[in-house]
Amino acid sequence: MPAINRYTCSPEIQISADISVFGSPRDLRVDATELELWQEHTRALRSVWYDGGHFYLDDHIERRRAQ
């Protein structure tokens, strides 16, 4: 079971830093909607989306190095 499925964060928790989330709309294990929920805990959420499935980063290593 992935850690994201076990982690819960109270709605009143606010993080003073910006948050970046990385995901793939075709990831069947981590839903894109769940990643976007981090918006509730920060003033600035940056979302980066990749093509691919759950292991999308394996296909995009060069793009990640450039960021």
Keywords:
15% strand; globular; 22% helix; 67 residues; 3 helices; alpha+beta; two-stranded parallel ribbon
Taking all Cα atoms into account, the compactness measure Rg is: 13 Å
Beta-strand percent range: 5-15%
Main pleated-sheet profile: 2 strands, parallel
Number of strand elements: 2
Uncertain segments:
none
Total helical segments? 3
Structural class: alpha+beta
Helix content: 10-25%
Instruction: Give the N-terminus to C-terminus distance in angstroms.
Output: 29 Å
Could you please describe the fold and organization of this structure?
The protein is about 20% helix and about 15% strand. The longest helix has 6 residues. It is α+β, with helices and mostly antiparallel strands and about 70 residues long. The mean pLDDT is about 80. The protein has 3 helices and 2 strands, in the order αβαβα. The protein has a two-stranded parallel sheet. It has one domain.
